[in-house]
Amino acid sequence: MKVTHIQRVAVEIEVIVAREFAQDIMIQMILAYKHGRIT
Which residues contact 38 (CB under 8 A, 6 or more apart)? Predict the structure, then answer.
């Protein structure tokens, strides 16, 4: 039971980190687009 609980928490943490990472990429892409860096 403990192992599954730890795995569940780890997955939740990974999802949170992935969301934050994806948001950072989106923000950088939008800023780059506004500044005309993307060709």
Answer: 29, 32
